[in-house]
Task: structure prediction
Amino acid sequence: MRDTDLFQLALGLNSPWQVAAAKFDAAAKRLDIEIDFARGGRFPCPACKTADCPTHDTETKTWRHLDFFQHQAYLHARVPRIRCPDCGVRLVTVPWARPGSGFTLLFEALAIALITHMPVAAAARLMGEHDTRLWRMVLHYTDDALTRQDLSDVTRVCIDETAAKRGHDYISLFVDIDRRRVVYIADGRDSGTVHQFKEHLAGHHGDAANIEQVCIDMSGAFIKGVGEALPEAQITFDKFHAVKLVNDAVDKVRRAESKVRPELKNTRYLWLKNETNLSSAGRQQLDSLARAHLKTGRAYGLRVAFQTLYRQPIRHWAEEHLDDWLSWAMRSRLDPMKDAARTIRRHRDGILAWFDSQIANGLIEGINSLVQAAKAKARGYRSTRTLKAITYLIAGKLDLRLPT
Result:
């Protein structure tokens, strides 16, 4: 079999396309494959799909292909411009590459697969390409997939913010709980982000009126945004944020008391960890401190009691438990615990809604950790747009329509 026949089969080319020649340069570690079309070949119009349009002229183009062993491979072809009776002169679409790309579809599929698991700069070094070219590819595929997004079946979402850059630069993630995918990313973390999500839904076959459940933290901005933009949604306050609120209050009590009780120095995690997660030495130290009649010990008792809220079997029992806890906290004479109790009382209905919805932001926290890990490996991103693109790529479950 001739080498041109072999490459013809390997590239999967069909008439009128054919491999005309192949040149291998071992010194340059490069393989160049020339592709041509049969004389008199006719092509469909790329715009209106009218078949059998005659060739007007040709343009020579080059695409980077998958490496041939350790050697870079390039395809070169005379690409015809056809003369369509309705659309005029148009450049035809070749079957091995998308319009405007300098890479073949298979090369792009490999690049996207690598970029899903490593920083773009690392993938670029591995593939011998400039990272700017790979970024253009990532942005093209994510933007194209987002335009085809169908959100008609989204009914439950969780919302949370994550840091885009150091300082006060944030993005807000909107996650479809049932399909475990990021469906929208907004700049900032104010109430306007929820309005942006509503507009995004409307532009992708969704409807804000279909959103039945929303899980958020106790951010006033998100509460306001959901109330205005998603009026049919029942709010569930994320239980992990509620527990964190109480934990933070315990730590404030400890820090204040440690100024006069030196034995509390360096004991922060004794009071914040669940007892089952402590070492035997840690449990012994905690038991010893608990017998010392400390304010922190009282705060710790409130913390443990609050966590048992989520172990109540039915909502009615949870309501009674929470009301008892609020009364206890307000009588504790511990200002941080009283402040936490006031916040929890204001958000009582949303906290108790968990017993109906059973949803929490654990999913989105996991996605946040993936995003932050990707950002750390890449040592940050040049812009919010590139961070969004990577987030969609790793957590959006987008239909990229890449060859497999």
In short: The CA atoms of residues 173 and 185 lie 5 Å apart. The first helix runs from residue 3 to 11. Strands lie at 17-25, 30-37, 55-68, 71-84, 88-91, 156-165, 169-176, 181-187, 213-216, 234-237. The chain has a mean pLDDT of 92.
